[in-house]
């Protein structure tokens, strides 16, 4: 008697989660994040976007274009953010020595102190819960959320262009 080998069946892909369920999950996440952002704003008068700019400058000077691309925001939005941070004495704006047409944005000592003084999510239940995920789960979640945000921003830009 001859054995007949049956090829393995292809894996069955899980049914896609409805977009509504993704939005609900993100909304639930926002309920955990929002109180921390409000506390940051009350304590420092600084928005999360402003804090993200300062954090990006921790590693060195950047052009406004580099910051806007990294943050995924428009140039006018970044200009408002930079103006506020500059007025508060948290950043500097200087001409690029290599190309005097370009501006370089840097962190002041006051900006460094503002970053060090407030840990927005450290020690929160959300932070502790994230640390219980495996490294792969953390990476997959971060990648998925990042992709969702990028797609939404692209669609937002497309909608504004119409």
Task: Give descriptors for this structure.
162 residues, mainly alpha, Arc Repressor Mutant, subunit A, two-stranded antiparallel sheet
Structural class: mainly alpha
| Sheet having the most strands | 2 strands, antiparallel
> Low-confidence spans: pLDDT under 50, at least 5 residues?
none
What overall geometry do the principal axes of the alpha carbons give?
A: globular
C-alpha Rg, in Å?
22 Å
CATH topology of the largest domain: Arc Repressor Mutant, subunit A
Give the C-level CATH assignment of the largest domain: Mainly Alpha
Architecture (CATH level 2) name of the largest domain? Orthogonal Bundle
Number of domains: 2
- Give the strand content: 5-15%
- In helices, the fraction of residues equals 55-70%
Mean pLDDT: 84
What string, H for helix and E for strand, traces the elements in order?
HHHHEEHHH
Distance between the termini: 68 Å
Number of strands: 2
Chain-wise SSE layout:
Elements (H helix, E strand, L loop, with lengths): L18 H26 L3 H10 L6 H8 L3 H13 L3 E5 L7 E5 L1 H9 L7 H8 L2 H27 L1
Antiparallel strand pairs: 1-2
Helix pairs in contact: 3-4
Describe this structure in words.
With 162 residues, the protein is mainly α. It folds into two domains: 38-119, Orthogonal Bundle (Arc Repressor Mutant, subunit A); 121-162. Helix content is 62%, strand content 6%. It has helices at 19-44, 48-57, 64-71, 75-87, 109-117, 125-132, 135-161; strands spanning 91-95, 103-107. The protein has a two-stranded antiparallel ribbon. Strand 1 and strand 2 (103-107) form a beta hairpin. Helix 3 (64-71) crosses helix 4 (75-87). The mean pLDDT is 84.
């Amino acid at each position: 008697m001859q054995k007949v080998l049956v090829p393995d069946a292809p894996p069955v892909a899980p049914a896609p989660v409805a977009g509504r369920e993704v939005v609900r999950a993100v909304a639930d996440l926002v309920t955990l994040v929002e109180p921390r952002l409000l506390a940051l704003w009350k304590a420092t008068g600084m928005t999360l976007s402003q804090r993200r700019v300062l954090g990006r400058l921790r590693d060195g000077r950047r052009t406004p274009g580099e910051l806007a691309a990294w943050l995924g925001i428009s140039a006018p939005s970044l200009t408002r953010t930079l103006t506020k941070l500059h007025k508060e004495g948290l950043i500097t704006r200087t001409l690029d020595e290599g190309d005097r047409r370009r501006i370089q944005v840097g962190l002041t000592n006051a900006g460094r102190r503002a970053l060090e003084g407030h840990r927005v999510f450290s020690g929160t239940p959300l932070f502790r819960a994230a640390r219980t995920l495996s490294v792969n789960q953390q990476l997959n979640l971060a990648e998925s959320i990042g992709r969702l945000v990028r797609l939404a921003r692209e669609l937002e830009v497309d909608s504004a262009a119409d």
